[in-house]
């Protein structure tokens, strides 16, 4: 198994009636966010929580959560990436990037990933004209979601700091943003 959600493009459980709200993450949400991330990627909850706290304190980063009642059921972030003259050829371009979209397994296929992505695109539209995203080519659900939201392929030959994707397994995408500034 790849660690991604099972690819079920014709399954949509939004009709189950759960009230899902997205909002900016707060410090009180970070433990739940860290647990979601660690359940998917491994590592330390405390270490991940500290990194998320740093994200909250950085004005060029944004963290969003999806909640059902008081329960955090999804997380996603936006980071600013800037290239330098020391970067290797093929470095992803300067700009804002969607990162870390994770939805609790029990809440997948409820439209939560889309809600979080739209929220993060809205935040970024207040700051930029475009947004980037990169994904594993094997992650059909996220590729379909981002295609639906206007993302198009830029390249499959790129590097990004800290990117865990092996060469040839990822795709870099970009979407224009509506002006909200």
Automatic annotation (TrEMBL):
Domain of life: Bacteria
GO MF, any single term: acyltransferase activity, transferring groups other than amino-acyl groups
Keyword Transferase: yes
Family annotation (InterPro entries): Acyl_CoA_acyltransferase (IPR016181), GNAT_dom (IPR000182)
Transferase recorded as keyword: yes
Keywords (A to Z) from UniProt: Transferase
UniProt domain N-acetyltransferase: residue ranges: 20-178
Protein name: N-acetyltransferase
Origin species: Kribbella pittospori
């Amino acid at each position: 198994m790849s660690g991604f959600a099972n690819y079920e493009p014709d399954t949509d459980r939004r009709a189950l009636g759960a009230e899902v709200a997205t909002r900016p993450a707060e410090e009180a949400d970070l433990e739940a966010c860290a647990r979601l991330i660690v359940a998917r990627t491994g590592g330390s909850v405390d270490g991940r929580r500290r990194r998320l706290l740093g994200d909250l304190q950085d004005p060029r980063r944004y963290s969003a959560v999806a909640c059902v009642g008081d329960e955090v059921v999804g997380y996603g972030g936006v980071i600013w990436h800037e290239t330098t003259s020391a970067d290797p050829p093929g470095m992803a371009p300067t700009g804002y990037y969607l990162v870390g979209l994770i939805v609790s397994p029990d809440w997948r296929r409820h439209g939560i990933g889309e809600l979080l992505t739209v929220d993060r695109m809205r935040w970024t539209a207040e700051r930029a004209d475009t947004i980037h995203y990169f994904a594993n080519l094997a992650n059909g659900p996220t590729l379909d979601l981002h295609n639906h939201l206007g993302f198009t392929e830029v390249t499959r030959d790129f590097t990004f700091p800290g990117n865990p994707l092996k060469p040839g397994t990822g795709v870099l995408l970009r979407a224009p943003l509506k002006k909200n500034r």
